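Q: I have 246 residues here and want to know how they pack in 3D. Can you give me a structure?
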Amino acid sequence: MAISQCPGQDKRFWKPDDIFEGSCPACGAAIEFWKDDVRRRCRGCGATVANPRFDMGCAAWCKFAEQCLGASAVGKTEDVAGALIAEMKKVFGADERRIRHALGVLDYAEQILACEGGDPLVVKAAAILHDIGIHEAERKHGSAGGKYQEMEGPPISREILERVGVDAERTEHVCRIVGNHHSGQGIDTPEFRVIWDADWLVNLFHEEPRPKPEALRKAVEQTFKTAAGRELASALSTRNRGLTEH
């Protein structure tokens, strides 16, 4: 039976935790989110904050997805992401730093995706696998430099993606992102821009050594490719300045 309105957005079907409280990354103030909010403005500092639970790939979680799209079109994005995380951890083994980095990029990528849109499966897969060639680059070239990661990452990514059942078109898209995630050459899709910004957010704000204030300011102004990425970078930069001043 055809439906004229998505039942998932009908508040008669909502559960208590579909309205929840989060916190502002800039000032720590509480923010109330409804599940269909893409973003909210913080009443404490005015920052625009992405809903951490919003997912453009509604077919991956909505119980009405089969009514809307048909059974064959219902994505298994979260199942695939879980399988890819497991595969990524196998490749990195005891390298907890690289695992934390990949999961950090995934977290930021999901926040940016919620605001900017794109294919959720491609974004999440690319976030999880973007650095997957590091160990092979170190083994073959004696360096984890970006150009070597871009050389060695796509073949490993393709093998993993095919093993977990990702379709050929998305596999090629993810491999192109992995093969350009440092240089930014040869690709400019919405999904690539999400990964580019998410990777920079982790590198700038969660890795050592931290950039000096002037370098950080220039990076926030010049590096990011999405509005949501720049907003997150500005909020994190403001929070870091506040911590430094105290």
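Q: Anything worth noting?
A: DSSP finds ten helices and four strands in the chain. The two ends are 60 Å apart (CA to CA).
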